[in-house]
Amino acid sequence: MSNFAFIFARGGSKGLPRKNVRRLAGKPLIQYSIETAQSVESIEKVFVSTEDSEIAEIARNAGAIVIDRPAELASDTSPEWLSWQHAIEWATERFGKFEQFISLPATSPLRSVGDVELAIEKQTSKESDICISITPASRSPFFNMVKVYDNGLVGLVNKPEKGVARRQDAPTVYDITTVVYVASTSFILNHSSIFEGKVTAVEVPKERAIDIDDIFDFKLAEIIVEEGISG
């Protein structure tokens, strides 16, 4: 089964300006995802989709194939799914058909090669359309997550039939992470969102599931890398 990996990285970022080229422990953030993809034996080619010249230069120097992303697919409001479809079509036109699409967002630099390999294995062995990555949630909609009603009162997002006195007694819930996505190319091309299909998942520990959105996330990632906390 042919596997192509893709990293989607825009030049613009509101939460942390230029985060994809910002140096994390001396290395551009995007380079972590590229190097991880290159270390996965079953991944045949590694692509970076971007509209930004600096990101493109870093990607080429790191050995990735650069996809010139159209400006209309690089705005704050453009769904990344459309960039996924564009990248698949671009790669297919130049390198032929491939079966598995793997997305490794630059904002999750602490993933391991094993996380990616497990997702690929799970997607190919299960009757699913896409494999996502998840990590245990710190808060629960059954215990300590609330919504505000029109009258100003609040209530649990999901109220269980019986009251839950401890978080440990609530149903286990997970956060979706940006560590890895693995899907069949046909599913991406013929649908418009993850949960339109059959979804499976791999669980990733919190220390490898950092999703860098702002300076606080970045500083936490720096500490994890420099202290060697991530396993």
Task: Provide the descriptors you would attach to this structure in a database record.
Spore Coat Polysaccharide Biosynthesis Protein SpsA, Chain A, globular, two-stranded antiparallel ribbon, single chain, Cytidylyl_trans, 231 residues, EC 2.7.7.-, nucleotidyltransferase activity, Nucleotide-diphossugar_trans, alpha/beta, 6 helices
Radius of gyration from CA coordinates: 19 Å
Low-confidence stretches: none
Count of helical segments?
6
The N- and C-terminal alpha carbons lie at a distance of 29 Å
Mean pLDDT: 92
CATH class of the largest domain reads Alpha Beta
C-alpha geometry: globular
CATH architecture of the largest domain: Alpha-Beta Complex
Number of strands: 12
Count of folded domains:
2
For the largest beta-sheet, the strand count, sense and barrel status come to:
8 strands, mixed
According to CATH, the homologous superfamily of the largest domain is Spore Coat Polysaccharide Biosynthesis Protein SpsA, Chain A
- Kindly estimate the percentage of residues that lie in beta strands according to DSSP: 15-25%
> What class, by secondary structure content?
alpha/beta
The level of helicity is 25-40%
CATH topology of the largest domain: Spore Coat Polysaccharide Biosynthesis Protein SpsA, Chain A
Question: H/E order of the elements?
Answer: EEEHEHEHEHEEEEEHEH
Protein name: Acylneuraminate cytidylyltransferase family protein
InterPro entries: CMP-NeuNAc_synthase, Cytidylyl_trans, Nucleotide-diphossugar_trans
Organism: Pseudoalteromonas obscura
Pfam family, one: CTP_transf_3
